[in-house]
Amino acid sequence: MKKLTTVYTIELIKLKNTSTFGLISLGALFIPLFLDITVSSRWKMYSKAFTDVNENNWLDYSRKLFNGVHFIFLPLLLIIIIALVSNIEYKSNGWKHLFVMPVSRNKIFISKFLMIESLALQIYCLITLFYLVGGHILDLLHPVFNFSKYPPGYQYGGIHTDIIPYLIKSFLSVQALIAIHFWLSFRIKNTFTVLAIGLGGVVMAVGMFIGHWESLAYFPYGSPLLLCNYRSGAHFLDDFLVSSIVYALFGIIAAYIDFIRFFNA
Amino acid sequence: MLSKLNPIVTKNLEFKYKKGAILLKDINLSVSKGSIYGFLGPNGAGKTTTMRLLLGLLKSNAGSVELFGKPLPGKPSAIFANIGALVEQPSLYEHLTGYDNLDITRRLKGLDRKSIDNVLETVNLTAVAQKKVKAYSLGMKQRLGIALALLGEPELLILDEPVNGLDPAGMVEIRNLILKLNQERSMTIFISSHLLSEIQRIATEISILNMGQVIFQGTIADLESIQHSRLHISIDTEDNARAFELLKTHYQVTLEDKHLSASVTSKTDIGDIISTLVNNGIRVYEAFPAESFETLFLNLTKDHLLQ
């Protein structure tokens, strides 16, 4: 366990002086800031529109914000972050040095995967923080929104969801994409190729989303999109979330086998 | 704990890439503890491929590799705890400082912070440790790569062309460092190069690799005895043209630009040649083996190519 935490700490050190944390912070800020500026500039129109639908303005504010997050932006941000972080090892020719250290490939694999997941979690934490702060700033600027009087929540089609379960579902929805790109990151040395594959996947998912393809639920890049205007179903885990988890499991297992048995520095 | 076993032993090592020709065949190496083992060969001979196999970075198609008696592949913590390696270019995170790069390796090896200061002093990089590696010169990067390999004072140091790209002063510095590590710390050093002159100055044992096969393995003295046994000598006299006329009927002699070359069957003939010249009033300025180490190296690889 001690060695695993050591290897994980080393992965953190490697991110020093890179644009990773800056990109995560700015990326997490972008949609909340954009939405706040838009709503604030037309606050009379938005306050009327929100209140016509709900007393709790968080519900519609959340829907708009997380639609913006899940429609292309979050998937692309994750793809870029994974590609940049993974490229550090290739750029420094670091794999051959890493593999002659007294540490097992298992621990290297697990620590790298944990690093990617913790960066994804960081994005979620920051988005949530900026979402909450953004709502309260809007409230300070325009008290008519009444954000301070109600708890954050998400509503679409008359169905209300608490914000925490929604965020958990969102995190599950991106697991397929994370696992696939983690695997690709050490199969394909060229960062641009990996980015192109990710971009292609996201564009295809958007096309399927616009065309209302039902099979979008089973496409690995499609799950985040299905959280736009999300209406929760009878079960906590919708089909597209189960699909994302299954893809993620297959992706991680394939990545593990590939890394342990076949990957050469 | 210091191991008594030979640090590197390979048996019938063979390697080829998928669907490719065999790159290495029947590589049998035995590196003695405490030696500086020079691994020589022309470019493309397979030196770096061999080193990658020694470190488990590539999997052999046949044969075995043992490091301190432990076979590869094995448990990395058991095998690599006593080994430092620099294969091809140093693996450096250029966005980090020299100190941070060493800190990463230090943590992986489970060493304390003091070990970083020690190796920085050894390679003379203490003053620039807090600078980002991208600001380092090529020589400084090479020294940092060696510092990474030295962390933890390994028993075995594997260096792949460590003087590549260095100026003469840099080469001297690395050469002196290698000698110091071997003499003061009894470190076994396995060093590859295509520069025979560099290896000749420091190695105690060498092997020569050509086209994926070892064509010579032994000590420098063994190589010197081959050099002497081939009995080609160069002679420089006060009148080479006249000396040639005098010798050509009895010996296999050729007149070169500034000296005579002679092939003889025994060392006695060398004495006879010199006596003949002196007795005929021709002063002999010098007589030495015509086949330098460089020429011997080239001829050995050429002869192997022709076989």
How does the major sheet of chain B shape up? 6 strands, mixed
Secondary-structure element order of chain B, N to C = EEEEHEEHEHHHEHEHEEHEHEEHEH
Segments of chain B where pLDDT lies below 50 for 5+ residues?
none
Count of domain modules of chain B: 2
Helical content of chain B stands at 25-40%
Give the overall pLDDT of chain A as a whole number: 91
Alpha plus pi helix count of chain B: 11
3D shape of chain B: elongated
Give the spatial strand order of the biggest sheet of chain A. Answer: 1-2
What average pLDDT do the residues of chain B reach? 87
Number of DSSP E strands of chain B: 15
Order of helices and strands of chain A: HHHHHHEEHHHH
* Annotated CATH architecture of the largest domain in chain B: 3-Layer(aba) Sandwich
CATH superfamily of the largest domain in chain B: P-loop containing nucleotide triphosphate hydrolases
Structure summary, number of beta strands of chain A = 2
Give the N-to-C terminal Cα separation of chain A.
25 Å
Task: Provide a concise account of the structure shown.
The complex is a heterodimer of chains A (265) and B (307). Chain A has helices at residues 2-14, 20-41, 43-53, 57-91, 95-98, 105-141, 163-173, 175-187, 191-210, 239-262; strands at 153-156, 159-162.
Walk me through the structure.
The complex is a heterodimer of chains A (265) and B (307). Chain A contains ten helices and two strands, in the order ααααααββαααα. In chain A, a hairpin with a 2-residue loop joins strand 1 and strand 2 (159-162). The two termini of chain A are 25 Å apart. In chain A, 72% of the residues lie in helices and 3% in strands. The radius of gyration of chain A is 20 Å and the shape is globular. The model of chain A has no long low-confidence stretch (mean pLDDT 91). Chain B has 307 residues and is α/β, with parallel strands linked by helices. Chain B has two domains: 8-219, Rossmann fold, CATH 3.40.50.300; 230-306, Alpha-Beta Plaits. Helices cover 38% and strands 25% of the residues of chain B. Chain B contains eleven helices and 15 strands. In chain B, the strands form three sheets. In chain B, strands 7-8-9-4-10-11 form a six-stranded mixed β-sheet, sandwiched between helices. In chain B, strands 1, 2, 3, 5 and 6 form a five-stranded antiparallel β-sheet that branches. In chain B, strand 1 (8-16) and strand 2 form a beta hairpin. Chain B is elongated, with a radius of gyration of 24 Å. The two termini of chain B are 45 Å apart. Chains A and B meet through helix 1 and helix 5 of A and helix 2 and helix 3 of B.
